[in-house]
Write a structure and sequence with these properties.
Helix content is 32%, strand content 27%. Strand 20 and strand 21 form a beta hairpin.
């Protein structure tokens, strides 16, 4: 027997999805913030025990372990990354702080800029200058580099970002800076902009490189610890790591640019959603993931969630690498309920896993969304909660909400219900902002809900948004972990190139795509994938003159690695036609009499690997199951005795009328009044508005 294991580390729980043949086995355990690799090993040990094996024998039979992590995100949220410095071209010291004048909320006069990762005293300039074509205008002054490195060393800098003007055209100066800084600061990590994001514009490249330098020591040290622990435990294959682009790759590739793991956990859920949606005839999805710390929203259109490179703002910092678009709110089971200036608020501060919600009984004292669900009777305090791995307690919960109620002039149960209403409103408003920004009406979408808490809110949110169909996979509590097993090994990189579409230098384009193909070939070979198994999408980024942002599209779909026969005299004409069609689809207009310009080339490569099978349909005869018990609960219409069904006893075809609560091992599905839940042939749930 062989196993494939997907792992997703969240702020509260570490999730595992294990494929054993066609069987999917789920597991959760609390994350270990002091060293998250310990939580991973604890979970693998628990899975080994379930299989009746010791850890070494179990890991020896694992053909793949795929890992998604929020460690880079948490570093930015908690602002506890490396002591970082920046070396840049003379005259560009403050560019990273100007942020192109960008402000997330232009109406909030009190909104402070984000905390500078590299405050001005740690931003150094060196004498050098390249022109736009890469020719040297001012030679590199090596003495100024050494002086900058020494000054950074005196400030205790652990990681150095290097971003010189036009280095993506000619990287010689940046490479020499690395050599000099390494001599002066031998223990510092060094991030070069032409390796992290080899394209214009300058601010995007500098910001991305600075963030990469900030998170790199934590990400790489964590991955190295985990690889070592897996090796010592008996694992013999590559550890594959989820990327923000929706693909996976080896640790060796990730260590070259750790920024690629930012938002990789949520990306796994989106990739898994697209996979499930296609199987269940729902190609247009609103994906919502409510875990212990955050609420993530994303869209799948026409069965795919393409990665976008460009103006990706994450945690108020611009990240220019390709990323699956995920919007995040501080709204999870651990989000803290509190009163501020007479207003009841939920989040964004979270209790996390240490100490966690009050109901965890681990020393938490602040009431959370999980505690509100306990107060409302939605979550069980019985011994069987979370598969019996731990038990929720109401001790201290009533008193905490009574304190909130005293400030609001209500009782404890009303305060808990109002907290439920507030967090639900926050999430629904977040969805409206996300969909409105893309000109999409939520009513045209199917909601796919996952995460430990997502199914508890899904139907009531859908009703708020006008959505009438909700999908809840059986594996929803660890769905992002399962999504990592759906993701294919992928390398997605780009290079900057600027020319009118009618004036393309075909030899240069071939050289750039050839370089990207060689990089992909090398890394895939190291991971054990031969070149003939690699599928390629050759892409161009184009825009009309004067536009700030470009659109990226395939110029050659499903090509072969290194086959550039499509780069011929007709390339420019085809590019203009494809760009205009893409522009019309995105913006509903084209500039018919303007010649667009190419601003970049991109190569997205992947290898197709086995994925979990997804069942669909309702072939089984409809059944009317009996509830296991009833529980006093408030599902939005006051407290009443609500039927509670055990998910483990429900069979394909079973229909659960509202109101009802369905308890799965690691999640709770609420069938709110006016909804019906059905179990399809795969054991997944479909919630329909009556």
């Amino acid at each position: 027997m062989t196993y494939r294991i997907g792992i997703d580390i969240g702020g509260t729980f570490t999730d595992f999805a294990m494929l054993k043949g066609d069987q999917v086995i789920l597991h959760k355990n609390l994350s270990t913030p002091q060293d998250r690799s310990l939580g991973v090993m604890e979970g693998l040990g628990a899975l080994a025990e379930k299989e009746g094996l010791d850890l070494a024998a179990f890991l020896g039979q694992c053909e793949a372990i795929v890992h998604g992590t929020t460690i880079a995100d948490n570093t930015l949220i908690e602002m506890n990354g490396a002591h970082t410095g920046l070396i840049t071209t003379e005259g560009f010291r403050d560019e990273v702080e100007y942020r192109r004048g960008h402000k997330e909320d232009i109406w909030d006069v009190r909104l402070a800029p984000p905390k500078q990762i590299t405050p001005r005293r740690r931003r150094m300039t060196v004498s050098e200058r390249l022109l736009h074509d890469g020719t040297v205008h001012v030679p590199l002054d090596e003495g100024s580099v050494r002086d900058a490195a020494r000054r950074l060393g005196k400030q205790g800098v652990e990681s150095v970002a290097v971003s010189l003007l036009f280095s993506f055209v000619n990287p010689d100066h940046e490479k020499r800076v690395r050599e000099l800084v390494a001599e002066e600061l031998p223990n510092a990590q060094i991030s070069l902009s032409h390796e992290v994001l080899p394209r214009a514009p300058e601010y995007d490249r500098t910001s991305t490189t600075v963030v990469n330098a900030y998170v790199a020591p934590r990400v790489t040290s964590y991955l190295q610890r985990l690889v070592q622990r897996l090796k010592e435990g008996g694992y013999r294959n590559h550890l594959m790591v989820m990327q923000a682009s929706g693909g996976v790759m080896t640790v060796d590739y990730i260590e070259g640019s750790p920024i690629r793991v930012l938002a990789s956990g949520p990306a796994g859920g989106v990739v898994g959603s697209a996979h499930v949606g296609v199987a269940k005839n729902a190609k247009h999805l609103l994906c919502v993931d409510m875990g212990g710390t955050s609420y993530d929203m994303s869209l799948v259109l026409d069965g795919s969630a393409p990665a976008e490179a460009g103006w990706n703002m994450h945690h108020r910092y611009l990240i220019g690498v390709p990323m699956v678009k995920v919007e995040t709110l501080g709204a999870g089971g651990g989000s803290i309920c509190h009163v501020k200036s007479g207003e009841l608020m939920v989040g964004p501060r979270s209790a996390g896993s240490e100490p966690g919600p009050i109901a965890y009984g681990r020393g938490g004292t602040d009431p959370t969304v999980t505690d509100a669900l306990v107060m409302l009777g939605i979550l069980s305090t019985d011994e069987g909660f979370a598969g019996g791995s731990f038990r929720l307690s109401k001790d201290g919960v009533t008193e905490a909400f009574a304190a909130i109620g005293a400030q609001m002039g209500t009782d404890a149960e009303t305060a808990a219900f109002d907290s439920w209403r507030v967090v639900n409103a926050n999430m629904s408003q977040g969805v409206r902002r996300t969909t409105a920004g893309k000109g999409i009406d939520p009513k045209d979408l199917t909601m796919l809900a996952y995460g430990g808490n997502g199914p508890a809110f899904a139907a009531i949110q859908a009703e708020d948004l006008g959505i009438t169909r909700v999908l809840v996979p059986k594996a929803s509590p660890t769905f992002s972990a399962l999504g990592t097993l759906v993701a294919n090994p992928m390398i997605d990189e780009e290079r900057s190139y600027h020319a009118k579409a009618t004036q393309l230098d075909l030899d240069r384009l071939k050289a750039m795509w050839g370089e990207l193909a060689d990089r992909a070939r090398r890394y895939f070979a190291d991971a054990g994938y031969p070149a003939d198994k690699v599928a390629c999408n050759y892409q161009l980024a184009m825009r009309y003159g004067g536009q700030n942002f470009a659109l990226t599209f395939d110029i050659k779909h499903d090509g072969k690695l290194g086959d550039l026969s499509f780069v011929d005299a007709g390339l420019g004409v085809r590019a203009i036609e494809l760009f205009n069609a893409r522009h019309m689809a995105e913006y509903n207009h084209i500039r018919e009499y303007e010649t667009p310009e190419v601003v970049g080339v991109r190569l997205a490569t992947h290898v197709v690997t086995p994925t979990p099978a997804v069942g669909a349909g309702f072939a089984a005869a409809a059944g009317k199951p009996s509830p296991a018990k009833t529980r006093r609960a408030n599902l939005g219409q006051g407290f009443a005795e609500i039927p509670v069904y055990a998910g483990s006893t429900l069979k394909p075809g079973d229909v659960v009328p509202s109101p009802a609560i369905i308890e799965e091992t690691f999640t709770t599905i609420v069938v709110y009044p006016g909804w019906t839940a059905k179990v399809d042939d795969a054991g997944d749930y479909e919630l329909l508005k009556d």
